[in-house]
Amino acid sequence: MSKFFRFLFVGFAALSVNVVYAQVEEDAFFDDLGELSTEVDANMPTSGPKDGLEPIEMPNPRADDIFWQKVVYRTIDLREKMNFPLYYPEEAQDNRQSFFTLIFRLVQEGKINVYEYLDTREIFTDEHIVSFKDLIDKFDIIHTIKADSLTNDSVIVVDETDVPNRDIVKFYVKEVWYFDKITSTFNARIIAFCPIMVKETEMGLTKFPLFWVPFETLRPFLAQTEVLITDKNNGARPSFDDIFIKRRFSSYIYKESNIYNRNLLEYNRNAEDIRRDQQKVKTLLSNFENDLWEY
Questions:
Q1: What one-character DSSP code corresponds to residue 129?
Q2: What is the pLDDT of residue 185?
Q3: Comparing C-alpha atoms, which of 257, 258, 259, 241 is closest to residue 249?
Q4: Residue 114, pLDDT score
Q5: CA 249 to chain centre
């Protein structure tokens, strides 16, 4: 009887090997000559498909439950190494695109609304929506006008090489830090982003804030867009949503909410004074959280 089971086990093992071998042959990336198989995509899969993925769920407290809050404005400089995943690739490739290119294409396709940049406030209402045509015309973005083959409507076409990703070297970020008395948690929530275009003009390098885009309207698309975060492991590809929710970016404070609605540059005389006030805001946030649990 034991000999029978031994033969049965060997038979199943051999069958499993043949099935696995057949599966490997069927899905092989290389053919018998060592060339890339024509039956697979040019790029090996490095992560699971992100289509249909939902954003990371975030708490949504009631206004009455917010015991304390502080609005902070930051600048993300894409030239800093930690922020390279937001800037590269300069042109979309390998199922990847830069943070700005993603936003630009979403605006072009009418999937999200973006809002006028104002110096003193952010207003996300219909009266302040910036259309894609206005964006193209105002910032002299190279484009062509073509007729839609079905509706014959005029369509704005921007080639991949003409998306002004290289000129977007910074982002403004508006965020709020708050304490929820119901859950007894101290959280940070990103409110909106503003891409900053830097161009050479007669006055030298000049910054042009393009528009504000609410973070929550972006999140469904960010969750489905993967990012290459390291050269050492091309398979490590989280989503844009992961990066922002887990705060895997570098930034510095340029403004805090205040009575006069001024940024740090307006009431500080030099860089040293600005750094001092930036540190004061960081200390305020850190001390508030630490003081919550002291007894």
A1: B
A2: 85
A3: 241
A4: 96
A5: 10
DSSP H stretches of helix in the chain: 2-26, 84-87, 99-108, 132-138, 215-222, 240-245, 264-267, 271-292
Distance of alpha carbon 17 from alpha carbon 37, whole angstroms? 23
DSSP single-letter state for residue 51: T
Residue 111: partners with Cβ closer than 8 Å, 6 or more residues away: 221
Q: What distance in Å separates the CA atoms of residue 89 and residue 158, rounded to the nearest whole number?
A: 17
> How many Å apart are CA 18 and CA 104, to the nearest integer?
50
Taking only Cα atoms into account, the Rg of the chain, rounded to an integer number of angstroms, comes to 26
The residues, ordered by sequence, that sit 6+ positions from 215 with a Cβ below 8 Å of its Cβ are 190, 191, 192, 193, 244
Q: Are strands 204-209 and 213-214 parallel, antiparallel or unpaired?
A: unpaired
pTM (two decimals): 0.80
SS3 category, 276: helix
Angstrom distance (rounded) from CA 250 to CA 225: 20
Q: Taking the chain (295 residues) in consecutive chunks of 10 residues, what is each chunk's mean pLDDT?
A: 50 46 47 58 53 75 88 95 92 84 95 93 94 92 82 84 93 94 89 93 87 95 88 77 93 92 89 92 87 68
- Alpha carbon distance 113, 125 (integer Å): 10
Compute the Cα dihedral for 254, 55, 112, 91 and give only its sign: positive
| Residue 248 CA from chain centroid, whole number | 10
Domain coordinates of the chain in residue numbers? 1-42, 64-292
Distance in Å from the first CA to the final CA of the chain? 72
CA dihedral of residues 114, 119, 123, 127 (deg, nearest 10): -70
Instruction: Say what the pLDDT of residue 278 is.
Output: 92
- Within 35-131, where are the H helices? 84-87, 99-108
